[in-house]
TrEMBL record:
It comes from the Eukaryota. The keyword Membrane applies. Its main location: membrane. The lineage of its organism: Eukaryota, Fungi, Dikarya, Ascomycota, Pezizomycotina. GO terms for cellular component: membrane. This is Amino acid transporter transmembrane domain-containing protein.
Amino acid sequence: MAISKKSRPNEEMEVSDVPASLAGDVQKPAGDHDAVFGEITEEGPNYRNVGWMGTVALMMKTMIGLGVLSIPSAFNTLGIVPGVICMCTIAGITTWSNYIVGVFKLRHREVYGIDDAGGLIFGRAGREILGAAFCIYWIFVSGSGMLGISIGLNAISHHGTCTAVFVAVAAIIGLCLASIRTLGRISWIAWVGLVSILSSIFIVTVAVGVQDRPSAAPQEGHWTSDYKIVNHPSFTEAATALSSLVFAYAGTPAFFPIAAEMRDPRLYTRALVICQVGVTATYLAIGCVVYYFCGSYVASPALGSAGPLMKKICYGLALPGLAATTTIVIHLPSKYIFLRLMRGSKHLISNSAVHWGTWLGCTFGTTIIAYIIASAIPVFGDLVSLIGALLGTLMSFQPMGCMWLYDNWSKDKQDRTAKWYVMVCWSSFVILSGTFLMIGGTYGSVVSIINSYKASGGSAAWSCADNSNSV
């Protein structure tokens, strides 16, 4: 691994590197120079205007979406005890990965996205590979968000019109909101979406606990939940379940641009701790309670587990959350492309026609690609799982282990303490475990795609069929 002279592992910490607990949430003054965006002035967008509470909302919303509702199904595959152990392990690894994102940003202020980190560590190849992975991953997640909105609209309207129309409506909503230029102005959407999705999933969690049986269970005779303490899945089933858990925490690549737009990146760790604790507590509560009461009859996504009426109510409440997720995941790849085109140009921070034309072109192009992928690919759901297993894992584990090694490997022998050796082993473990999960999850997803084709050939392109019937 090449170690650049730009890394400063042995130098004294700058004032900007002080712990977040000692820093104040200070507004970024107009006219200041930013290593990524250049001069921040009052004449253009303020890209450094996300407070630490807005950061919490953006972080949590990139992770908590309909992906959380696949957790009970993962517990059904693994068993509740192995499921909880695996989830907590993944939560611990991704928390460290997310922490390293903030540390790396403070040490290398010129870093905006994961591609910049890849460029520092691996050169041009690393920049281009991770940049392409970042765009592809979030564009596919954008398509998934559009389908999520279409499922919600179908559920609350009794399939009021062709599903292809609902997907188009979702794309228009995402395009309009994602075209807001800064994450600081999008953070209020993240708050609304977070409250919305949390209300929805906690209501379905309560509902499955008070009802007699889940909607998918036999409706006559005595019924008890068939939940399993420990299950014995095949390798493919276990790999797919683990991929679902990883995907639930795979917001890590979004944390780079979020940190880049913070008013004070020193408060990143504070926001991260609140985010990870809240997300993990939510996942554990929902996963354990819903699976305990539903057993193998849990729906995936789980909003359909409590019957038709509750499905309508929960999807109605979830719609703003689904729209917020779609907004953010369209904005992220659009902003990445925009910065690649405009970085170093006066148009990046101005309100010029070139600025607006390029920005709207990026959001429109991203939205159209996501819409086409979501509507035209017959096995889209399984393909999203494949992209999540391959690219989501790739960008949430291995780069962060490499980032720590990049900043610390060149320490002199006298500075290599016991802690240094432990961290080298830990970073190596993160890289190896991420690679194992990536390969295993990708294999499981490919097998699932093959089985889907054998069973039904997948769904039709631009289908009008009600996609809420199966959830």
